[in-house]
Structures are given as C-alpha cells and as structure tokens.
Amino acid sequence: MKHLLFSRHLFEENEAEKGDYSMNLQQGIHRMKRGRIGLALGGGGALGLAHVGVLKALEEFGIHPAVISGNSAGALVGGLYASGMSVETIIELSQELGDNMFDHFKMSLRSGLVSAKHIHHLLLEILGDKRIEDCEIPFYAAAVDLNSGRNYYIYRGRIADAIRASVSVPGIFRPFAANGLLLVDGGTRDSVPLRALEMHRLSLRIAVGLLKTSLNKDFPERLDILPDTEKEEGEKNATPGLTRILSRAMAISSTESTFKSIKLNPPDLALYIDIADKMKIWDFKRHEMAIEEGYRQACEQLKKYFG
Question: Global pTM?
C-alpha cells in the first residue's frame, strides 16, 4: 500500500508542476522501471490465456517482471515467459496449446480423468529440458500435494514438469507424481501465489486475478426455499447441461479463491481481468478473445493506476 500512496503523491506533484498527464504517466513508468517488480498470475482454466494480453500491456508500459509466480494457467503463461519466450511467440503458440487443452477437457468429460501425457510431451517439445534455475527470471509454479494438502512452490527442475504439475486440475487431469507427492493445481489452496514473491526484495508486487467481478463482496442472502413446480412429462427441461453446470461452478469457485488469495496477501497493485461471462472456463479455442480482453482491461487499469 505504501508504494501505491507514494506513486499517487509523486503523480500529484508532477501534475501540479507540469499540468500534463502524459508527463505524469512517463514519470510513473520511469519509477516502475527502476524498481524490482514481482508478478503473480492466477489460475482460471482457459481464462488464463488472458495473461498473455496482460504481459503485452505490461511491456508496453515498460514494466518487466524480475520475478514471476503462477498457478495453473498462470504457471503455463508465466513459465513460458520466464523461460525467455517473447509475448509474440507465446501468442503464436496459444493456438496449438489451446486446441490441445480443449481436446483433453472434452475427453475428460466423456471418460473421467486423463493423463495429460500429450500436453506434457508438447510442453517438453517447446521447452525441452530447460530448468527453472537456468532462467534469467526466477519462476515459481504453485501446486498442492493431494495426500497432505500442503502448498508447494516449485522453484527447481524442468519447467515443463512444473507447469504440468500446476495445471493438474482435480477431477480433470491425473495428479503429477514427483518427489513422492501427488501434485495438483495450486488453486486448490492458493489461486494467486503472491506469497512466493515474499522470497525476494521487491519494490512492487503485481497480482493478476481472473474472475467474475460481479461476485465481489457478494454477501449471502437468506432464502425461504420453495421448489419449482415439476414439469410435465415431455416438457422442455430448463436445467442446464453438464458442461454448463461444471463451467459455472468452476468459474464461481475460481473467483472466490482469487478474491481470498489477494485479500490475504494484498499486493501493491491488483489487476482484475473479467471474461467469465464471455467464455467457458475450458474454452481454450477462444484464445484470441482472451488475449485481447486481457490486454484491453490491463491497459485500462494500468492507466488508472498511473493516473
């Protein structure tokens, strides 16, 4: 919070002296460039492709993270970026990654848990045996051990393995076995892994949450329950299908987890990307829309922050 207050004070002084918003913005960006910035990317299934657009926006504002932590889809995008891959290259890869993820989600709905070996092999083709400790940008992938329930931040080993562990959504992909643990999606306990950034001396911590913002501060209401009248035989059933039910349930759960993660470990700047009503949580084929929305909404919020 002190960073945010200091930034606002700096901007007010600049505006008083210059009376020019563009100079105000430039001064703020210059300050950001001089500090060490940490970036925490949250999970959210296909919504996570919006992180690519967020990274593009950050670069245009001259912001280059010194440390990146990610959970699930955030680990996927963050891991690729930390490995040295450019935003443009990640955008090109999003088509192939999106199609593979989408096919595996469809397969899991038909037959239960799938191994995700094909996705793992694809990650190995892209990243090879490159290890996290060899990256110029320190990287942490959030995961949870299914047996003990403990949180883990993977900070060493092959990047492809770390991503595979972090994207292992319970009930969709089989857990990733490593070090005697059964690792699953870190969002089970830590949707936006801000605590991983505490291991570094940083001037600014930025969190990116993917969610349905209308659920923020939604206080429970009292309900006098009255069942709907049963429909007559043959009448169209208003109950949504399985995929719709799962998609909405996952979106609600992911949103709640994101808000809690950010509230428990408040960053200096939180960027909220809301596309939950525009695509399903596993609709990876809509990667272009997700990236565009991530870029647009991040730009809007960064301008407000600097302004």
Answer: 0.80
